[in-house]
Specification:
single chain, five-stranded parallel sheet, Rossmann fold, about 375 residues
């Protein structure tokens, strides 16, 4: 059994082994002077470090750090250059890690910060670091449910059947209902990651058009509000469906990220109208900031409109995760409609199943758990 000193040594090793920080990253765009100045003056790691150095109250120090963590979760330096095709990451991961390090210096064994940092490490593909942080959490709280879930995910991904079953047994003893839901979530994730992607119109459900909805997922705009190639491809695929199924309704989903001048869905709706779709057919969902929120907010509209069938439209590189989230949300809300999908082909390589070691697997699982009410950053961001 490890001693407290060994735990402290492990924590020190983890903190010291994190990537070297990159100093003075601006966020947003070069012409967004107000936003850049706000970040540098208030939310950057260096600004937070300077600010808390003048404060004695540890609770106030941590409150300032928490606000900065939340801000950096939704902001990323050099945003325009760091968006991968089909996969939008808005967070400033470098400063997030440094801010969690700072918090852990005040509260080394606080699950809020240990599991938050573990989540960032897992999404970044650093599974070993993430697992070590989770184990430290469990050392001090044997029944921390989210920590046990994190270990169960790793065991499942690495095909450690006995370890996974043992963890499921522990989860079931704590909360049977949540354990059953968790197992169903992982089943949906597995099915989604290994599914074949459909880019054939004839395979899309075409019955009962009046109760059929096409949901087109947004993608980040340029800093001046123009549509990028990835989003054009999604809109073109949705347009094809909308013209072939003229009685369907269309949901365009996408809010305004901090780096964008307007909501993605507003621009998407204008594009569809410009290409011949009547505005009354289109519902713009303007609040979502990521795919998880796209899912939850679109599902609320689908329930309100009593949809009987839904076709999800996104990029090939994005569809598996999006489909996983919509299936989980459908299960949780007990919604009874047929869900299928139609992909915009952004890359021939993206039509292959996603492997367990792929960083997109961690992101899909993390977001699926968020759909089920788990925190991505405990007590800071669901």
């Amino acid at each position: 059994m490890k001693t407290k000193k060994q735990d402290t040594d492990l924590m020190s090793t983890l903190l010291l082994s994190l990537p070297a920080p990159v100093i003075n990253y601006p966020i947003g765009t070069a012409n967004d002077d107000k936003q850049i100045q706000q970040y540098e003056n208030k939310y950057s790691y260096d600004a937070v470090k300077q600010r808390i150095s003048t404060i004695r109250d540890v609770r106030l120090k941590l409150k300032i750090i928490d606000h900065a963590i939340l801000y950096n979760y939704w902001h990323k330096p050099n945003f325009e250059k760091t968006q991968n095709q089909g996969v939008t990451s808005s967070d400033n991961r470098v400063d997030l890690i440094r801010l969690y390090q700072a918090a852990l210096k005040f509260h080394p064994y606080d699950a809020k910060y240990l599991l938050g940092l573990a989540s960032i490490e897992r999404i970044s593909g650093n599974n070993d670091r993430s697992t070590n942080l989770v184990r430290i959490t469990l050392k001090h709280n044997h029944n921390d449910y989210q920590a046990l879930v994190s270990l169960a995910v790793v065991a499942k991904l690495h095909h450690k059947i006995h370890k996974y079953q043992h963890l499921i047994h522990r989860l079931t003893r704590i909360n049977k209902g949540k354990a059953v839901q968790f197992r169903k979530t992982l089943e949906i994730v597995h099915d989604g990651l290994t599914m074949s992607l459909n880019h054939r119109f004839d395979l899309v459900n075409q019955a009962d058009q009046q109760h059929h909805f096409i949901v087109i997922l947004g993608f980040v705009l340029t800093p001046d509000g123009r549509i990028k190639k990835t989003l054009v491809q999604r809109l073109e695929a949705g347009l094809k469906l909308a013209k072939q199924l003229p009685q369907t309704r269309i949901i365009v989903s996408g809010g305004k990220l901090p780096q964008e001048p307007t909501a993605e869905s507003k621009v998407m709706k204008k594009w569809l109208i410009h290409h011949g779709i009547q505005g009354r057919r289109i519902i713009a969902e303007t609040k979502s900031l990521d795919t998880t929120q796209n899912t939850l907010n679109s599902m609320a509209i689908l329930r309100r409109c009593r949809a009987k069938s839904v076709t999800l439209v996104s990029s090939a590189s994005h569809m598996q995760r999006a489909y996983i989230l919509f299936k989980n949300a459908q299960l949780n809300s007990h919604s009874d409609y047929h869900l299928d999908y139609y992909v915009a082909a952004d890359s021939d390589q993206e039509f292959k199943p996603i492997q367990p070691q792929d960083i997109r697997t961690n992101k899909a699982i993390s977001d699926a758990l968020r759909i089920n009410g788990y925190w991505v950053l405990p007590q800071i961001q669901r």
